[in-house]
């Protein structure tokens, strides 16, 4: 067989596999590729993810570590060496990590620094699953396996025949402690390293049990080996050694705590007990399958199913649990605000600027019980810190803009979550909406100007002022919605209803776009709608002009009516991907580059501000265009491969966009009881709601060509609206789609079929 013929046959086989239809998914976790998005770097993100070995919302994650200690890019697909297996809580490389330490097997010499102990590896000898990771470390001739629980994990090292086999524990720099207890085959310690702070009394305590006696026990400080069994230093670690025979398996049980070593011991005993490695792995796999099976899809290609479940996996991590169960089985947590151990829930590791858009609405639809815990955690954030976090990492992080906790709180309550102190959360929203915080990323920077002028001015040394104005206006709408639901006085809710219209103050009729405004009421000049940064956040006016989630009808009216609004939407895709990077000092940030190379014009799906824009066609009588572009974006921008995202994945948000879009609807306006119509990706999807009801989405003639909704039956009746009601879907629903290759330009074109806009709200 010629080389050319063999290559052709292999390519054809690959295409056949990708196109093969999956008719039934019984083991969804096996479709997940945790390496999706790991082929990333600071200058170009294809996800900026790492292969998280964890259970859903677990307190601890684990990842192979290819990067240097302290490098946010902990694991990158093109790396050649692994330096350790790290416990991590990192939400993103840009936020970096907290609560971390690593474990690494070595052989031959007592190599303990990160460069000396590093080993070559290959993806050909790597197995990456959500519940299990395995890799062959070539330099050590050791296979490492690990499997997780919520607060603990098991390791299994398969060693070669060696007189000098070792296990290295690295508690990292910035202050750490280690103690080796050979009589108990145990190592304990803590790490204090974190990236965003301050964090009072912060320690990540850990305990490690090894099922083999140590013949060598040494501590180390930075690059110096010590004979002490106990060491507190700037950079403490341990190395223990023993002889091994070929194929000998050495097992480790590991757990941690933000509270104490004793609590870490308790976590280990509670979660691992007497379980073997395989028993823990089976439990972790079963837990993943339980969570992933909340949605089953049928009639998609192998690639589509892999992408769907890989995205679903990413939505089930952040915010992660910070709480633990004490000896009395009471829920307690370390407070990142005052350093105390206090009762109740606590979560961390998420930025609301990203996740208010689709991740939290997704939890409210499919996993409301975990979001109820998260809402209770927010109450504790407010009580202990005085503010709601906008970026928790794990305390207040001074990054990004907006006051989007308002959206997260309002959407949960309006979507039916109950059983927590919503009035305290409402109080927290009012406090955050009317005060500047101790840092710019809590409360509202520029609130005095905003409340007085109706916008944050360009010329008062407040960066990203136009973006802040638009987000504050939407957040005011969320407060208005929640206030109404809670029966607050009309005089109070009217104030936030009025402020929700502040977006109008930045609309420039001359360009039909949002434009920064000076304190004297004049527009900022010169105006370049392609300029990133400056008045906007990681985007330009073409991206942020659509950030009127609460009143798309009002925005369309400002733009000159439906036809001009649709033309403006079309322009986003037809414009060239030109940009002005001067707002970043001439530096082309990775978000700009990702837009430029995507071949979708000014549509920058790799970042959050514009991700809802596709669905706005539904508000102006052109729903088929939303159907087309949603499918295009799914096809072009997502794949379950190391380069499978088109920008930062961002704590489940970009994945949640895909999940919603694949189901055929999207939460354009969190805080409103509606999902806006797209078109389903699969021939069938079944959503098993926590209340026992099901949503069944049937589209039997769906295909790559048949991407348009010709007609739709909801619960056996013709349905013409461009939206679904959350509260109605919670009762259970059957959607029957008739898909077509040509758009139906008569369906969903009446104003009565449009989704919610504040301007059309007769009850305001």
UniProtKB/TrEMBL annotation:
Its cofactor is Ca(2+). It holds the Pfam family Glyco_hydro_92. Residues 263-740 form the Glycosyl hydrolase family domain. InterPro entries: 6-hairpin_glycosidase_sf (IPR008928), GH-type_carb-bd (IPR014718), GH92_a_mannosidase_put (IPR005887), GH92_N (IPR041371), Glyco_hydro_92 (IPR012939), PNGase (IPR050883). The keyword Disulfide bond does not apply. GO terms for cellular component: cytosol. SUPFAM superfamilies: Six-hairpin glycosidases. It comes from the Bacteria. GO terms for molecular function: carbohydrate binding; peptide-N4-(N-acetyl-beta-glucosaminyl)asparagine amidase activity. Keywords: Calcium, Hydrolase, Signal. Residues 31-257 form the Glycosyl hydrolase family 92 N-terminal domain. Monomer. This is Glycoside hydrolase family 92 protein. It comes from Arcticibacter tournemirensis.
